[in-house]
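Example 3.
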Amino acid sequence: MDTRDATDEELTALIAASALGDRGAFARLYARTSPQVFAVLVRTLGRREWAEEALQDAYVRVWQNASSFRPAQGRPITWIIGIARYRAVDLFRREQRHNIELRVTEDLADDGAIAPAAAPDDMAIGDKLETCLRRLEAQQRQAVLLAYCEGCSHRELARRLSRPLGTVKTWVRRGLEKLKECFDS
Amino acid sequence: MNRSLPKIRDLLAAEYVIGTLRGPARDRFEAWLREDAKLEASVRAWERRFDLYNDALAPLPPPGRVWRAIEARIANDRRARIATDRRVGFWRGLAIAAVIAFLIVLATLLQPRWPIAPDYVAVIVNDKGGPMWLVQADVHRREVLLKALQSASPAPTGKSYELWLLPGAGAPVSMGLLPSAAQVTVALRDADRVATAKGLAVSLEPAGGSPTGGPTGPVVYQAALVQSF
């Protein structure tokens, strides 16, 4: 827990310095966080060149919006990944990804392979996520995870899962509702 | 979408986070998010819940060209970044206007050969006081500089922000489309009406600007036009 908290504190300080226009601090922030963010973008977008574009835009936004980061609301890396993922969604909108073949990361519906192995620090929340995901029906779980991990829109989910649009929309919504109930319990 | 129901709000936040909220609904949601702290807390909570799926990924160092591109893009960012909250941003917005006005006066005094033209300045701020655009009208040269500031945001998809001069009498006169980043200089129409104008207004128009020549969308911001000397 200590390592993770110390890292978060350092990253928070780098973001704060970036907000004041310290380019050196921003360069260090990039060096420390970009490999993680890039990995997320490559997974989400499925194409390296798009991931690079989204990464570039995301960090320009991190620089511009550094003063709006609030440590009380979440971890620095989560904040940066959020900015990057929302940039990726914007990029999809522009690039119209319908026609490219999406790869399947893993069989997400398979009960044996729900959550990736968690680092020890993440065990508490990781256990919770895994427990809650197990309570979903397989199709709901698959729809939610494909959306989150591979950036699938409702339309892409429908195509990939060979189900009508309305059906996958319901899977996603019910899945999220159940997750929420489980997290709140 | 009824966003007053907590359950619906939270579901929208979840769909926003996992990325299935798209298109105009996503734009609307982002607009709410900017003004609704509770909704933002919902989004942060959902981000945390899915964090594990990002933490577990093996890090992948991006190629060096990405950082070089980022560096080049922020190199043009000449803002004095002092503000840590939006109220400071508001005062900075006023300060920027004051500094620009002062520089114009100074330039004129130091170079008396320059034609002395009345110039007008306005800073358009959002409802939280964040400076969005600087407007500088050069009546003599019949030009307007429209510069995006810290809080400038792109218009929702399929829309543009259009700036209007509100003359002392008569219909609003378009001063051009406001940029979401950087700055543009556009020709100033009806330059002789600037001096007596009541102020400026920004309306939300279809992409590319009003189809009729007059404002057709809602007026989202207004600002006073200040003579700089």
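Chain A touches chain B through 64 residues (CB under 8 Å). Chain A has eight helices and no strands.
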